[in-house]
Design brief:
Distance between the termini: 37 Å
Number of helices: 28
Largest sheet: 10 strands, mixed
Oligomer: single chain
Length: 854
């Protein structure tokens, strides 16, 4: 083995044996960051791939697919498509979410013509019993996927009960769908039977086209799209199943959520990078004379630089390898216990399995190694540049990191961060916002030596001036302030550890608290009624017809009833549908029922009907107050005028509110989805609820008080942000370990200094007091600066990153109890660590501590 290799290994193992805890903390920080980021990537990749595969299975081998911009369109378009030149087979499909009594999750039903679907989407053809082949066309038969059978658990021979309006529909389970994806809950019926049973006569959702051999699919699609746009403007979308538009639409539903989770996971990795820096910087400072001796004995700068980089590289390799393995295990466990969406609800109806992806693993592994190398780059360069004759002398440790105290690079980073906050999103992601946060952190941490010098020198001068004529002034405080004032670079390293961990924790805590409080205030605003009534099941087939609406409005104690109708419409091929909500909105004062943002505009006489769009519509579709817009209703494009913008935390893909009277006049749809009841003065909600329960259709309805809806919504919020809470807790733990490791390393490196103090008469108790005061003072300054920095970062998260990611705004809220608790923990950890490390440093005799200088 070459001598240089043996020496390198000996130095590395010797350093790890001497300070194993410090190395383990740095490795753990990198491993945590890599494992969280890799796990989130694997979870979302598995969920998205399974979700896309499930959609592909429902589309079969169709070459072109024609969909309506509304959920349903008139089936008279079907013959025109089926008889078009180049079409071999045209398969009509009716698709909707059927309501299951008592279940909030709907059953997706696909109604097909079995004879035509067999050529295009064979996965949608049921498997009837051998003696009941005619069940494929039976008007009461339904075929269920294995996941749907497992979910609904219909007994042998027992009918499947679904809800239509407020009534119940009983269907016979005629067999399974053999080739449905795992976890995919779907039912298949005959097209005519579904149209009749679910009151959708003459309606379709899509037509799948299989082209003849030799027909150019792209040219066919373009010509068909042009013709439909000319003959039926705004009514149809033509796409190729699983093309880029459809994939981007599916991916866009969860992209911002996935990216934000990944960035939050990398917060731990950033803290790990600084822990590597502090570990290596303090190690280099402590071994400064050793490295100088190696230089004198013949080691050149290149080999010394390589040695220190190898130490950082070993930390990165170990942390990344552990992180990749842990991330895979975490992803498998999360998919098994928490589901594919981590509580966010983007990938319902799929049951993916984690797949190890070597490319992603290599990327995350390289990221961890790069972070470790960047963390040790500055200490390695400083050690290689040091002059051996100067470095051999004791007392030169403060000069080791003097280059870090330069202010202009830090100020440049902060200035660039401020400029980037004004940059627009890239691919609808706040990439510049994240970059500005990183630059702000780097610049602020690099400024800590200069800040420590200013603060502690000012404190030392003030203390000295105040006690110049007092010979009995505390020597402990005098020595402490003198040391802090004259060792700003080392103090800056310790402060940086506190700053990075505490500021990121503060920013994440403020962001989550702000969103939670804003959501609660929003719910208070949009839930002004006394009682809310909804159907007991999810889906689109449950609802209230005019006679049921009249019965509810006539209940005793009811002053007024506000009925709500919700449906989906498509405004852009590459985006998910937006929600169209029709309700009683006062055009003169829409703020009574909507969380209005900014100004409103009253519609003038003769103007199109007013609508109020959510903040997402402004970002995604460029809408603004006063603009005239068109969207499809009842098979035609209708013009409306945007009269205001409102805040909607429930639907990040966009929402349009319109008056119920306008909606009914255009569509002649008199049904309602939900009801809000205002009671007369003195009326009791309990009495009205009891009267409601006596109605003949009461079993299909569910009543809720506003407080119940708020409590349920906040529970869903906490479940959706469970992973964020976990990341926040991990950031706090890493911060505590980082503070402990930094102060421990600094204290152990000062054994010579303590030995000299003992020689001149300072007692062990006084030295321990100095360490406790130093730890408390440095941590207090780091906490104060970290709070300011965290508050600034939270402003970027709340007012830039969040609106650019999810297209809604919120107010700022500071969770003082949590911030105070964590600050107290950091103070206690710093002081306790300094005391414990000080006791270890003082365990040897003073002569032994300074013998190298004799």
């Amino acid at each position: 083995m070459p001598a240089n290799t043996r020496l390198s290994r000996w130095l590395l193992l010797g350093e790890w044996r001497a300070h194993p805890v410090r190395a383990l903390v740095a490795i753990a920080a990198i491993a945590i960051g890599i494992s969280l980021g890799f796990a989130i990537h694997l979870i979302n990749a598995a969920a998205f791939n399974e979700f896309s595969s499930a959609i592909k299975g429902l589309s079969g081998v169709a070459d072109v697919q024609v969909r309506g911009t509304e959920p349903f369109f008139d089936e008279t378009i079907y013959p025109l498509l089926a008889q078009r030149d180049g079409v071999a087979v045209a398969s009509p499909v009716l698709e909707f979410d059927a309501s299951v009594p008592g279940e909030r999750t709907a059953l997706k039903i696909l109604a097909v013509d079995a004879f035509r679907a067999g050529f295009i989407s064979p996965d949608l053809v049921g498997a009837p019993a051998e003696d009941k082949v005619d069940d494929l066309l039976a008007d009461d038969a339904i075929f269920l996927s294995p996941a749907a059978l497992q979910w609904l658990k219909p007994a042998d021979g027992a009918p499947l009960t679904l809800q239509v309006g407020v009534g119940q529909l009983h269907l016979r389970v005629a067999g399974p769908l053999q080739r449905a994806r795992a976890g995919q809950r779907v039912g298949v019926m005959d097209l005519g039977a579904a149209q009749w049973r679910f009151n959708k006569l003459g309606q379709l959702s899509r037509v799948d086209l299989k082209l003849r051999s030799g027909v150019n699919r792209d040219a066919f699609k373009a010509q068909l799209e042009q013709q439909l746009q000319r003959d039926y403007p705004g009514r149809f979308r033509v796409n190729q199943p699983n093309d880029e538009e459809q994939n981007s639409r599916n991916e866009g539903m969860s992209r911002a959520y996935r990216v934000n989770l990944t960035v939050l996971a990398l917060v731990a990795l950033f803290t790990g990078a600084f822990l590597v820096f502090s570990t290596q910087a303090l190690s280099v400072i402590r071994r400064r004379s050793q490295f100088a001796l190696l230089r004198v004995l013949g080691m050149d700068r290149k080999h010394l630089l390589r040695q220190i980089l190898i130490e950082g590289l070993s930390l990165g390799v170990a942390g990344s390898a552990i992180g990749i393995a842990a991330g895979y295990g975490m992803a498998a466990a999360a998919l098994h216990f928490m589901g594919a969406d981590l509580g966010a609800g983007f990938f319902s109806g799929v049951r993916p399995e984690v797949q190890f992806t070597p490319v992603a693993a290599a990327v995350y592994f390289a990221l961890g190694v790069a972070v470790a190398l960047l963390g040790c780059a500055a200490p390695a360069l400083d050690a290689a540049r040091a002059q051996p004759a100067v470095a051999l002398k004791s007392g030169t440790e403060e000069a080791a990191m003097s280059r870090l105290s330069r202010a202009w690079p830090s100020l440049a980073c902060i200035a660039l961060a401020a400029l980037l906050t004004q940059a627009p999103p890239v691919f609808e992601l706040p990439l510049f916002g994240y970059l500005s946060i990183a630059l702000l952190l780097i610049g602020s941490i690099a400024l800590m030596p200069r800040l420590a010098a200013i603060v502690f020198r000012a404190a030392h001068l003030r203390w000295s001036a105040a006690n110049a004529d007092r010979p009995g002034a505390s020597p402990v405080l005098t020595l402490t302030l003198s040391r802090l004032a004259n060792a700003s670079s080392q103090a800056g390293i310790a402060l940086g550890g506190v700053l990075s961990s505490f500021s990121l924790m503060v920013a994440m805590a403020i962001m989550v608290a702000s969103f939670r409080v804003s959501l609660d205030d929003w719910l208070l605003h949009i839930l002004p009624a006394d009682i809310y009534i909804s159907t007991t099941s999810g889906g689109t087939t449950a609802g209230l017809r005019p006679q049921e609406q009249a019965a509810i409005a006539a209940l005793p104690g009811v002053a007024s009833a506000d009925f709500l109708r919700v449906r989906a419409i498509s405004l852009a091929a590459a985006r998910p549908p937006v929600a169209l909500m029709a309700r009683n909105v006062d055009a003169a004062d829409p703020g009574k029922s909507l969380a209005i943002v900014g100004v409103t505009q009253m519609p003038e006489p003769g103007s199109p009907p007013p609508v109020w769009v959510s903040e997402a519509m402004v970002d995604l579709y460029g809408m603004h107050v006063g603009q005239r817009i068109e969207f499809p209703l009842n098979g035609k494009l209708h013009t409306f005028q945007v009269s205001g913008i409102w805040r909607d935390y429930a639907r990040p893909t966009g929402t349009i509110q319109m008056r119920l009277s306008d909606y009914r006049a255009i569509t002649d749809d008199q049904d309602a989805s939900n009801v809000a009841l205002w009671l007369k003065p003195g009326a009791k909600p309990a009495d009205t609820t009891q009267a409601l329960k006596r109605l003949p259709f009461a079993a299909a309805l569910e009543t809720s008080a506003p407080s119940d809806i708020r409590a349920m919504s906040m529970k869903i919020f906490d479940r959706s942000f469970a992973i964020t809470y976990l990341l926040e807790a991990i950031a706090i733990v890493i911060g505590l370990f980082g503070v402990a490791a930094t102060f421990s390393a600094q204290t152990l490196a000062r054994s010579k200094e303590f030995g000299m103090l003992r020689h001149v008469g300072v007692t062990r108790r006084q030295i321990l007091s100095i360490l406790a005061i130093e730890g408390g003072a440095l941590t207090a300054l780091g906490i104060g600066t970290g709070f300011v920095l965290g508050w600034v970062i939270s402003l970027i998260l709340v007012f830039i990153v969040n609106p650019q990611s999810f297209h809604w705004t919120m107010q700022l809220h500071l969770p003082w109890p949590l911030l105070g608790t964590v600050a107290g923990l950091l103070l206690a950890a710093a002081a306790l660590t300094a005391l414990l490390a000080g006791r270890q440093s003082l365990s040897g005799g003073p002569i032994r501590a300074v013998r190298e200088d004799w």
